Structure to design on (899 residues):
C-alpha cells in the first residue's frame, strides 16, 4: 500500500485535470473524424494548443454574475462538481501500488461523491433565476436522483462476487475473470446510468441545448462555466476509470505494466463515450425517466437476484 | 361596370358552385386565366361559406392599394382591394374573390370560416390599415408594435432616405421593449388554473432551435405546453414593398432571398408570373434547365431539413454529412450559375446563360452517388429508435386540418393527400417528367421527414431525366421583353439598338394586368401575385409563402405536449424565417 503523499496527490490532480483539458480538444478532433470534418487542427501540432487557447479565453473572460441571481449559491454551485469529482479519484486504484487510499467502503465513497455532483447542477440551475436554467435544474434533479438508484444497485452484483467494497479488492478478485462477463447486465445498467449521471449526450437533458438553450448553465460564463465543463470531463474520466476497475479488471493484463493497462482501458471507454455522443439522439425527459423505472430497475433487480443465487450456489458447492 | 358584365356565378359549371344565387358584381379577366370575381361587401361571407366545400383551402388573402392605379380598367372603383385566393384540391382549380373598399369602409373578417385567415388579415391590417371587422385580435404581425403607418400603402416611404434619419433614443428603446413584452391576457390566457400557476416562457426570438429569429411565447404547466403564441416579423425586410421599386428584371435577386434555402426555385414563380403578364413563351431548353436547377435546390433544401431535423432531436452527426453533400451540390450550382445559395439565375424568358461545358458529368456524378448515401442516412437517423420515439405521433394533424390551416407541400402530403402541383397542374414543363409523389399517412413529425427524404430520391430521378434528355436550342426566349434582350442585331439597325437600350436601362415595360403563378417549392406552395400597371416596375408584388401558414398552426399541434416535442415539431415543419416574414 502506498503512502498518501503530496507528490502523488499532485500527480493525480495534474493527470486528471490535464486529462480533462486535453479531452476537450481530443473530443472535438474525434468527433471531427467521425463527422467527415477536421475539428480544431490549426494551433500547434494536430491543433493540441487549442486547449491552451481555450483555457486562456475562458479564464480571462469577464466574470459576470447576473444581478437577478442568488449570488452566493451561483458562485458555489460550479465548484461542487469539480471538488466532488476530484475527491472521487482518491479511491481509484490506478495500479496495484498506485492509489491514494484503499477504503473498505471505496465503492460507496465513489457513489457518494458522484451524488454530491448532482447538487452542483441543481443549485446552478436554481440559483440562476432564469426560466431555462430552472427547467434544466428540475430535469437534473429528477434524472440524476433516479439514475443514482440504478447506478448504485447495478454495482451490487460486483460487490457480491468480490465480497468487498474496496476497489483494490474488487480488482484483485478479477484475477480469474473480469466481471463484464458474469455481470453484463450490471455493466449495461451502469454505463447507461453513468451517462445519465454525467449528463452527457444522449442524456444531456439538463443542458439540452436544442430545447433549453444551455439548460442549467445558461447564465454561466468564463471561469465558472469552465468549472462546470471541467467537472463534466472529470466525470467522464472517472466513469471510464470505474468501468475499468469494476468490470474490466482494472490494472490487470499481460505484457504491459499495470498503469499502462489501466490507462489503455480507461482511454478506450472515454472514446466509447465520445462515440456515443456522436451517434445517438436525445430521448425526451419523460422517456428517459420511464426507461429508468420500467427497464433499468427490473434489469438491475433481476441481476441482483440472479447473482445472489449463483453466488450462494457456488459457495455451497 | 356595365350590366352585361354582371354575371351569375351559378351557370358557370366549371366552378360548380351549387345553388348559388350570388351575383358577382364584376368578372375580371386576368392574363393568368384564374377566374376572378368582384363581390359586394355584404355578400362576401355567405359566398365564401358556400365556396368552402369546393375550395377548401384559403390559399392567400392580401390587400392591394389601388389609389395610384392608372390603368385599372374593367374593375370597380376602389381605394383598396382585398383578394381571397382559394384553392380546390379535387379539381386542382383556383378562384379569386375580390372586394373593393373605399375608405373608411371595413371588411368582414373570415376567421370564422377559415382559421388560417387570422394571420393573413393581421398582415393586411398591418400593411394597409384595412380593418377586418370581427377579427379576434387585429394587431400588428410583421412590423414592430410601435411602427407608425402601414408600410405597403403607396404613401408610405419605401426607402430610409425618404424618411427622417432614425435614432433609437433611450426612451424609444424602453418603449419598444415594453411593447414586446408578452402579456398573456392579450391572448386570452390565464395566469393560473385551479391546481397550478403557469410559467410563461419566451422561446426565441434567439434560440438554437427556432431556425432564425422566431419567437414562441409558451404557457407552461411544468414542462407541458398549455398554449403557445407564435410571434413573427423579426425577419421582415419589406420584400413586397421592394418589388414596387425594383424593375421587373432587377427584382429577381430579391426573390432568391425569400426562401433562402430554395435558391433559384424562388425565381421560378416570379419569372413565370412576369412571363404570363408579358405573354412570353419559354424555349424548351430553358424549361429543362430551370427544372434541373430547381430540383437541385429542392435536394439542397431537403438535405438541410434532414440534418437539422436529426440535430434538433439531439442527434449530433447527421447534419455534418448532409452539409457535406450540400457542399458538393453547391459546387455544381456554382459551376453552372456562378453563385451558390442565391444565384438569381433565372431570367424573364429563360435563364441567364447556357450550361457550361462538362456540366452533365458533374451532375451525373452527384446523382449517382446520392442514393447510397441516402440509404446510409436512413440507417443512421430515420431508423434510430430514439429518433422514432421522439417524433412518431408527435405534432399530428389530418388532411382536413391541414387544408383548413393552409398547409401545403410535403407537410400536406405527410397526411396522405397525394397532391403535388407538379403532377396535378404541371407548370414549366413538369408534365414531361416521370416521377412519383411520395406520401405518408400519420401526418406527424416523422412522416413529414419521411416524405421529404423520399422527395430527394424523386428529385434525383427528375434530374437524371433532365441530364439524359436535355434539349438543344436557345436558353432564352426571342421575345422583346426578355431581359437582357437579344443583342446580336443591335449594331445593325437603330430600332433594335434603341429597344435594347431602353429595355436594359429602364427595364422592360410589362403590359397592365395581373397574374399569379404558384410552384411546388421546397416547403410547399409558393406563389407570386403580380399586378402590373403598365410600367417598368410591378405595381403590387404579393408573395405567398408556404412557411407563413405553417407557423400559424404550431399552437394547434403542440398543445398538451412538452418542450422537446415542440422542438421536434418546429424542426419537422421545415421553415425559414425569411420565407415567413418576407
Amino acid at each position: 500500500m502506498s503512502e498518501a503523499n503530496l507528490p502523488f496527490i499532485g500527480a493525480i490532480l495534474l493527470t486528471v485535470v490535464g486529462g480533462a483539458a486535453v479531452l476537450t480538444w481530443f473530443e472535438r478532433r474525434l468527433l471531427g473524424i467521425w463527422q467527415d470534418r477536421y475539428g480544431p487542427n490549426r494551433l500547434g501540432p494536430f491543433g493540441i494548443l487549442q486547449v491552451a487557447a481555450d483555457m486562456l479565453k475562458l479564464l480571462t473572460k469577464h466574470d459576470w454574475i447576473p444581478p437577478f441571481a442568488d449570488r452566493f449559491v451561483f458562485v458555489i454551485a460550479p465548484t461542487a462538481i469539480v471538488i466532488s469529482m476530484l475527491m472521487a479519484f482518491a479511491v481509484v486504484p490506478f495500479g496495484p501500488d498506485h492509489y491514494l487510499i484503499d477504503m473498505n467502503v471505496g465503492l460507496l465513497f465513489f457513489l457518494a461523491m458522484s451524488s454530491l455532483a448532482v447538487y452542483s447542477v441543481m443549485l446552478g440551475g436554481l440559483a440562476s433565476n432564469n426560466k431555462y436554467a430552472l427547467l434544466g435544474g428540475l430535469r437534473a434533479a429528477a434524472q440524476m436522483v433516479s439514475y443514482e438508484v440504478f447506478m448504485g444497485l447495478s454495482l451490487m452484483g460486483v460487490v457480491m462476487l468480490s465480497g468487498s467494497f474496496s476497489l483494490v479488492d474488487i480488482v484483485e478478485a478479477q484475477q480469474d475473470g473480469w466481471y463484464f462477463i458474469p455481470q453484463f447486465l450490471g455493466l449495461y445498467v451502469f454505463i447507461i446510468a453513468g451517462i445519465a449521471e454525467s449528463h452527457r449526450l444522449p442524456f444531456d437533458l439538463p443542458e439540452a441545448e436544442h430545447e433549453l438553450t444551455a439548460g442549467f448553465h445558461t447564465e454561466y460564463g468564463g471561469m465558472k462555466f469552465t468549472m462546470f465543463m471541467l467537472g463534466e470531463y472529470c466525470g467522464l474520466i472517472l466513469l471510464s476509470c470505474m468501468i475499468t476497475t469494476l468490470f474490466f479488471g482494472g490494472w490487470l493484463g499481460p505484457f504491459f505494466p499495470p498503469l499502462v493497462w489501466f490507462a489503455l482501458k480507461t482511454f478506450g471507454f472515454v472514446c466509447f463515450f465520445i462515440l456515443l455522443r456522436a451517434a445517438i439522439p436525445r430521448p425526451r425527459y419523460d422517456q428517459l425517466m420511464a426507461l429508468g423505472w420500467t427497464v433499468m430497475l427490473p434489469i438491475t433487480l433481476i441481476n441482483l437476484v440472479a447473482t445472489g443465487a449463483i453466488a450462494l450456489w457456488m459457495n455451497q458447492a | 361596370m356595365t350590366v352585361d358584365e354582371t354575371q351569375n356565378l351559378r351557370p358557370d359549371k366549371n366552378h360548380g358552385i351549387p345553388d348559388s344565387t350570388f351575383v358577382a358584381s364584376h368578372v375580371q379577366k386576368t392574363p393568368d386565366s384564374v377566374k376572378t370575381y368582384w363581390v359586394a361587401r355584404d355578400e362576401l361571407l355567405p359566398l365564401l361559406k358556400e365556396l368552402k366545400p369546393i375550395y377548401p383551402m384559403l390559399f392567400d388573402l392580401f390587400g392591394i392599394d389601388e389609389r395610384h392605379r392608372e390603368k385599372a380598367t374593367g374593375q370597380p372603383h376602389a381605394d383598396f382591394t382585398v383578394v381571397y385566393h382559394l384553392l380546390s384540391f379535387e379539381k386542382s382549380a383556383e378562384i379569386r374573390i375580390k372586394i373593393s373598399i373605399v375608405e373608411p369602409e371595413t371588411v368582414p373578417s373570415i376567421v370564422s370560416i377559415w382559421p388560417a385567415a387570422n394571420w393573413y388579415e393581421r398582415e393586411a391590417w398591418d400593411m394597409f390599415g384595412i380593418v377586418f371587422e370581427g377579427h379576434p385580435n387585429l394587431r400588428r404581425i410583421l412590423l414592430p408594435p410601435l411602427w407608425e403607418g402601414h408600410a405597403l400603402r403607396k404613401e408610405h416611404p419605401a426607402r430610409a432616405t425618404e424618411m427622417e434619419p432614425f435614432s433609437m433614443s433611450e426612451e424609444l428603446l424602453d418603449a419598444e421593449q415594453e411593447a414586446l413584452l408578452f402579456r398573456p391576457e392579450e391572448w386570452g390566457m390565464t395566469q393560473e388554473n385551479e391546481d397550478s400557476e403557469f410559467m410563461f416562457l419566451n422561446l426565441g426570438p434567439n434560440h438554437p432551435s427556432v431556425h432564425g429569429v422566431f419567437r414562441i411565447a409558451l404557457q407552461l404547466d411544468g414542462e407541458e405546453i398549455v398554449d403557445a403564441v407564435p410571434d413573427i416579423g423579426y425577419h421582415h425586410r419589406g420584400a413586397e414593398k421592394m418589388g414596387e421599386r425594383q424593375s421587373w428584371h432587377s427584382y429577381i435577386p430579391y426573390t432568391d432571398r425569400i426562401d433562402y434555402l430554395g435558391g433559384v426555385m424562388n425565381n421560378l414563380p416570379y419569372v413565370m408570373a412576369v412571363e404570363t403578364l408579358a405573354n412570353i413563351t419559354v424555349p424548351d431548353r430553358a424549361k429543362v434547365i430551370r427544372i434541373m436547377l430547381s430540383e437541385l435546390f429542392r435536394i439542397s433544401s431537403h438535405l438541410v431539413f434532414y440534418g437539422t431535423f436529426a440535430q434538433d432531436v439531439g442527434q449530433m452527426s447527421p447534419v455534418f454529412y448532409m452539409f457535406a453533400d450540400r457542399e458538393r451540390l453547391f459546387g455544381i450550382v456554382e459551376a453552372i450559375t456562378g453563385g451558390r445559395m442565391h444565384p438569381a439565375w433565372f431570367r424573364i424568358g429563360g435563364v441567364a446563360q447556357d450550361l457550361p461545358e462538362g456540366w452533365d458529368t458533374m451532375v451525373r456524378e452527384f446523382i449517382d452517388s446520392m442514393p447510397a448515401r441516402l440509404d446510409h442516412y436512413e440507417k443512421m437517423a430515420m431508423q434510430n429508435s430514439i429518433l422514432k420515439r421522439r417524433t412518431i405521433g408527435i405534432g399530428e394533424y389530418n388532411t382536413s386540418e391541414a387544408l383548413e390551416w393552409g398547409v401545403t407541400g410535403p407537410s400536406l402530403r405527410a397526411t396522405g393527400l397525394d397532391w403535388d402541383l407538379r403532377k396535378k397542374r404541371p407548370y414549366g414543363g413538369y408534365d414531361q417528367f416521370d416521377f412519383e409523389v411520395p406520401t405518408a399517412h400519420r401526418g406527424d413529425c416523422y412522416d413529414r421527414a419521411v416524405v421529404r427524404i423520399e422527395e430527394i430520391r424523386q428529385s434525383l430521378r427528375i434530374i437524371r431525366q433532365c441530364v439524359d434528355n436535355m434539349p438543344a436550342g436557345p436558353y432564352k426566349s426571342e421575345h422583346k421583353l426578355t431581359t437582357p434582350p437579344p443583342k446580336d442585331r443591335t449594331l445593325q439597325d437603330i430600332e433594335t439598338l434603341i429597344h435594347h437600350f431602353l429595355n436594359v436601362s429602364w427595364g422592360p415595360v410589362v403590359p397592365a394586368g395581373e397574374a399569379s403563378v404558384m410552384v411546388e417549392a421546397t416547403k410547399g406552395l409558393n406563389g407570386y401575385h403580380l399586378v402590373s400597371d403598365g410600367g417598368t416596375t410591378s405595381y403590387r408584388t404579393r408573395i405567398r409563402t408556404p412557411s407563413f401558414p405553417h407557423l400559424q398552426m404550431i399552437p394547434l399541434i403542440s398543445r398538451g405536449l412538452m418542450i422537446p416535442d415542440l422542438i421536434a415539431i418546429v424542426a419537422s415543419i421545415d421553415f425559414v424565417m425569411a420565407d415567413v416574414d418576407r
